[in-house]
Amino acid sequence: MSTTVPTSIPCSAEEIASEGLKTGEYDEIVQRLGRHPNRAELGMFGVMWSEHCCYKNSRPLLKQFPTEGPRILVGPGENAGVVDVGHGQRLVFKIESHNHPSAVEPFQGAATGVGGILRDIFTMGARPIAALNALRFGALDDPNTRRIFAGVVSGISHYGNCFGVPTVGGEIYFDPAYAGNPLVNAMAIGLMETEEIVKSGASGIGNPVLYVGSTTGRDGMGGASFASAELTDESEADRPAVQVGDPFLEKSLVEACLEAFKTGAVVAAQDMGAAGITCSTSEMAVNGGVGIELDLDKIPVRETGMVPYEYLLSESQERMLFVGEKGREQELIEIFERWGLHAVVAGEVIEEPIVRILFQGGVAAEVPASALADNTPLYEREILSEPPAYAQTAWSWQESDLPDDSLVGVNGQSWNNVMLALLGTPTIASKQWVYHQYDHQVQNNTVMLPGGADAAILRLRPLEGDDGSSSNSGVAATTDCNPRYVYLNPYEGGLAAVAEAARNLSCVGAEPIAVTDNLNFGSPEKPVGYWQLAEACRGLADGCRAFDTPVTGGNVSLYNETVDGEGQPQPIYPTPVVGMVGVIDDLDQICGQSWQNPGDQIYLLGTPLGESAAGEVTLGASEYLKVVHNQVAGRPPKVNIDLELKVQAACRYGIRQGWITAAHDCAEGGVAIALAESSIGGNLGAIITLLKTTQRYDTLLFGEGGARILVTVMPTHQAQWENYLRDQLQDQWANIGTVTKADTPLTIQGPEQQPLINLDVATMADSWRYAIEKALNA
């Protein structure tokens, strides 16, 4: 066989830069190969040495995450994490970003983000049972933001609905910081269907390598490199880096894959996601300590005249790479052909630990597998010795800088009007315009509909042959991150994201067990950007240890920056999204956030109103400060871990005892907004009394932070509940009011029963429920 690998032709500076590589990295490539790479090989290094694939700036920081625990079956390093949820069931879950593709082509960018994360799940041998998403957009008064927002939501609904997976939860924030660079983080959950967990490490010298699924084309060229650079005015020209998905084909692919896995003839499997053939061959080789030889002439294509560079960097969707047992190739091929899919033997496992690519009778590329997927560049950057100037300036802000407030209101606005303004803010407002486009009940396992609880709840179907003892168990899932908190204090913001995720699970009665994270940041090459990333990771790590929720994997998305009109890259708010899952042993012991019965007593668990300690509850970094006073300043609230653990445990216990009828955490907008949301959800009023001490009224109503959960309890359980609280929370709780009947207002009283807020539920609902729809139609 002749070789076509050049040995002495250097690549030009333009070619090196076009692959997203630095001059020093190219020199390292030459040293690794002992020669100059050819064009195809340069492209392979470009995608595999991108931040998206090799985490060269973030890997040192990720090492601090806890990754082991009694429930962890598969941690970081595989296509998705796997945890034991009891009753013989194994849950597979992960989150991934598709930010830059969604900025350039919102519909396909978001749709293929969903498709990619679903493949990560069923590649492990699991059937996807649910999807969630964490989305960030610019302000809705910007026409471009409205276009991107509508396109992303449409893409998510298209792929998920057609594939047949329910989209059951998530979160959406709107802020000018994301104008031009939206964040589209897709999370998926599945249940293992195969006896053995399918992993990606190739093995068995001489075993066949099979290409299965759809055809390969030029779509998605260099998507991993595209995801690792800031967006510019020229990014529209990178549309080929955005893949085109086919959810109906992927539906066939999941069935064919699961059927193939159950035969026992599949040794290893790898999704062709970012970096396509290059990534799947090199990672399978490295993870198995072997090599892979692949012949591009065997690959099914949808376009003519493709060259090795295009084959290797294409990110065409709905494709997989298998290592099969020798002699059982036809058995696997027949399964895929029966599902109308391509399946061909395109290569074999070899002993030499290299990736060898054949094309038209010659060697198109030959690279040590470890150089692509294991022994990749690593940048351990210096962290700022003190917080950057913008943070120190923000921290100098004090609540006393605000105009005086009173029982009547602030800045000429009544508290009623402030409440309605906050309820109508897109970040706080109902997301029904979004989730009404998603099929959230397909598969019939969705226990709580979107918007009805602080976390999604899914029924776990009994395994085949189960005696039915697990038929009432379930899991809960949530995604959380307040990016303004992270921007103003990355450590506390990262810690708060974990705390809020655990709190949301606790509010439905679930025990938090594990985390997948999506780290969305600007450039790590800038001292401020790296400080944000490093401090947020430290907060996430401390939070995951505190809540005993190991990290099973996730995604890092850096260089989320948009070049402004003056040519300066503007980064997004640092946004480390936490996807957390929890277990529910009995689905009869759950609750939502909406009030259920007139007469139920309303309790605030955690930091008492008017008695904030050590900055736990503050107007700093709050939605109130941004919306009403147009300021992004102050310190975000500190997380009291000990109190969080106690409050969340008390909430779960009360739910499991059947005492608690509704539970809702206090997040954006503080206690007043949480009260309004529970009131709107149940269409019931309430009379609330807030005891004021030294705090401002706006802090009392709209201050954020603290380990605070609102719960309602039926009067018949009041004595038992309060005895339990005295024992477990001492004085860190209060009975603050009573649920009233329909057609009565939400009344929030200050000292001496003087009303601060008095609003009809219908009036609040109108501001809250239709705010996004009104903004889109403005």
Protein model, in words:
The protein is built from 27 helices and 30 strands. It is α+β, with helices and mostly antiparallel strands. Among the domains are: 1-67 and 198-376, PurM-like C-terminal domain (Phosphoribosyl-aminoimidazole Synthetase, Chain A, domain 2, Alpha-Beta Complex); 386-429 and 591-778, PurM-like C-terminal domain (Phosphoribosyl-aminoimidazole Synthetase, Chain A, domain 2, Alpha-Beta Complex), CATH 3.90.650. Strands 1-14-13-10-12-8-11-9 form an 8-stranded mixed sheet.
**CATH class type of the domain at 1-67 and 198-376:** Alpha Beta
- What best-fitting shape do the alpha-carbon axes yield? globular
Strand order of the largest sheet: 1-14-13-10-12-8-11-9
Fraction of residues in helices? 25-40%
How confident is the prediction overall: mean pLDDT? 92
Number of helices: 27
Measure the end-to-end span.
66 Å
Q: In total, how many beta strands?
A: 30
* Sheet with most strands: 8 strands, mixed
**What structural category do the secondary elements indicate?**
alpha+beta
Beta-strand content: 15-25%
Task: Specify Rg, calculated over alpha carbons.
Answer: 27 Å
CATH superfamily of the domain at 1-67 and 198-376: PurM-like C-terminal domain
CATH topology of the domain at 1-67 and 198-376: Phosphoribosyl-aminoimidazole Synthetase, Chain A, domain 2
CATH architecture of the domain at 1-67 and 198-376: Alpha-Beta Complex
Q: Segments where pLDDT lies below 50 for 5+ residues?
A: 223-229
Specify the oligomeric state: single chain
